[in-house]
Specification:
mainly alpha, two-stranded antiparallel ribbon
Length: about 290
């Protein structure tokens, strides 16, 4: 139906008695209808049509209002969706910021300066732990912590020019050069320093939000090595066997953890592998002596 363009409530009934409507009246006047009756008939017809137009106009007004309300609801719903999406994005950004810089958001303790300084390894070590990657225990020995405290004037991410093994020069991170020059492999640590580093390492793992099952596994792994029957043997090569076993099994675990096979539990000592490791350590020592 075509839209009604003008409000019929504002229309005024024409005066059909005027000369302008004489021709119209003449069509209605006959033996049974007078001039006055013709005027009234025309007025009645106009009023009936006007009443119909008013009803249609009111329906049109209500339809328009309903359409506007519907569009407004759709607009409000879309705005609400956008607001919620924006709020989620902001919340996700805040969570990501807290995850990336979690130490920035740690609540303050209700205490003053502690008597004993906290154990703070270098940023390179902390990033490796945050990523769940393999890290040498040396970083948590006294030497590793001393180096972290004395060499913090250079950012670990800073690029420095260094000479590679083939004689060529290249830009590398400062952390990688310290790693190459200073870090002692786990198997080459003195057993005392191994025992010294383990509890510190566990605390760092906990601060790095490692899952509880992995924390328990690592704690048992190191405890079982430190109380193993070979620990009481005075032969230095036996002590070396425990260190080599620890280093190899931990490295292997990190490799497998990233594979499709998934991580396994290394807490219990595999005595067969330990014996194989002991034989290999003795053999390597014998070769070293023969070549000396």
């Amino acid at each position: 139906m075509p839209r009604i363009r003008y409000d019929p409530n504002l229309s005024i009934c024409p005066d059909y008695a005027l000369e302008d409507f004489a021709n119209t009246r003449a069509q209605l006047v006959n033996d049974n209808t007078t001039e006055e009756q013709a005027v009234q008939l025309l007025r009645n017809i106009w009023q009936a049509n006007n009443a119909t137009d008013k009803r249609l106009w009111q329906q049109q007004v209500e339809d328009d209002r309903e359409e506007r309300d519907h569009l407004q609801r759709m607009e409000d719903d879309e705005q609400e969706r956008l607001n919620q999406e924006h709020a989620r994005e902001e919340e996700d950004a805040r969570k990501e910021e807290r995850k990336k810089n979690k130490h920035k958001y740690v609540p303050l303790l209700n205490s003053g300066i502690p008597n004993d300084p906290s154990i703070t390894p270098c940023a390179y070590a902390l990033r490796k732990l945050d990523k769940g990657e393999y890290l040498e225990l040396w970083y948590f020995t006294n030497d590793g912590l001393d180096e972290a405290s004395t060499k913090k004037t250079v950012d670990d991410n800073a690029m420095i020019l260094t000479t590679l093994a083939d004689g060529e020069t290249a830009w590398v991170t400062s952390a990688s050069t310290r790693n190459a020059c200073s870090v002692v492999n786990d198997e080459d640590l003195p057993f005392e320093e191994f025992c010294q580093a383990c509890p510190r390492f566990l605390l760092a793992l906990e601060e790095a939000d490692w899952p509880q099952d992995r924390l328990r596994m690592m704690a048992l792994f190191w405890r079982n090595l430190q109380v193993h029957k070979l620990r009481s043997v005075r032969d230095p090569l036996v002590q070396k066997t425990l260190l080599v076993y620890q280093a190899e099994q931990r490295r292997c675990w990190h490799v497998v953890a990233k594979s499709s096979a998934g991580p396994y539990d290394i807490s219990a000592v595999n005595e067969k592998v330990m014996e194989e490791t002991r034989a290999r350590v003795n053999w390597d020592n014998r070769i070293k002596k023969d070549n000396a």
